[in-house]
Amino acid sequence: KEKSNLLFKSKIFILPTFYKPEAFPLSIIESMRAKCYIITTKHNYLPKIVNEDNGSLIMPKNINSIYNSLNKISNDNKKLRLKSNYNQELAKKKYSEENYLNSLAKIFNIYL
Q: Is the pTM of this model over 0.70?
């Protein structure tokens, strides 16, 4: 509950990961649902979740890239608001519990 409250009070979520097996971090989906703009690294599958429609991709292990991305979005409230709203709607539609359970059901039906 604390994490959820913190995310809903935030406007920007930054995940500068370069963790080798990083795939599809739940923290990004939770942040999108909380209406956060996403800044994450251009690493593994992350560009399939985050793109110019809902955030920005930075280079791994590059502090200047984080600073530049954060500075750019912090100075454009309209863009921040539009992309944050987009994230919340996308998370509701694409990453809902119902969609997740339907996807699992399809997988199990294939292998049963």
A: yes
